[in-house]
Design goal:
Blueprint (H helix, E strand, L loop, with lengths): L1 E3 L5 E5 L4 E5 L7 H20 L3 E16 L3 H12 L17 E12 L2 E13 L2 E16 L3 H19 L2 H9 L1
Antiparallel strand pairs: 1-2, 2-3, 4-7, 5-6, 6-7
Helix pairs in contact: 1-3
Length: 180
């Protein structure tokens, strides 16, 4: 079963073994205001329809895409990366000789303990000489979660994603986000 909204970027997918919510960037405001109410609906579905005391996996994914216009990506590449991403996360890619239509990715998996982990991926796409996309992907997952701990574990996963984002981007980006 798929339920979606005509007025918001919100979609639910339900079947006999899983439940999923997808929230688009125009609808997402914050974890507490947007995602938590949806997570509570998923928990209710698991309790009432799937009827299980344990969830095999909870996964929260967040994606941020920054489109950047430039007049000369070869000249601006290093400055753009240093403006957006903290230096310690890009030292190994900042001096790469780049060409048009290049995609560079860097990925890390962090063990969070107790059957939880977080995958973090940075992708830099050079579409043409004037356009760069920087994408951040954060996927936090916990396995074998008791239904009574579903909300608490979801909050923990969200906090780890938020912490990773804060650790990854520069203060320049955080200040821009505060203005919006």
């Amino acid at each position: 079963i798929q339920l979606s909204s005509n007025t918001e970027q919100l979609k639910y997918n339900f079947d006999t073994r899983s439940a999923k919510v997808i929230i688009g960037p125009k609808t997402y405001k914050s974890f507490g205001n947007t995602l938590l109410p949806s997570i509570e609906k998923l928990k209710h579905y698991v309790e009432r329809v799937i009827v299980t005391p344990e969830v095999l996996e909870i996964s929260i994914s967040k994606y941020n895409v920054l489109p950047i216009q430039t007049t000369d990506f070869k000249r601006d590449f290093k400055n753009i990366l240093e403006y957006v991403i903290r230096k310690e996360h890009i030292e190994d890619i900042i001096n790469i000789d780049i060409q048009d239509n290049t995609k560079i990715s860097k990925e890390a998996v962090v063990d969070l303990g107790n059957g939880a982990n977080q995958k973090i991926r940075i992708t830099i796409s050079l579409v043409d000489k004037n356009k760069i996309f920087i994408e951040f992907a954060f996927i936090a997952t916990a396995t074998d979660v008791a239904l009574k701990d579903y909300i608490e574990i979801s909050e923990f996963l969200n906090e780890t994603i938020y912490g990773a984002f804060i650790n990854l981007v520069t203060n320049n980006i955080l200040e821009l986000m505060e203005r919006d």
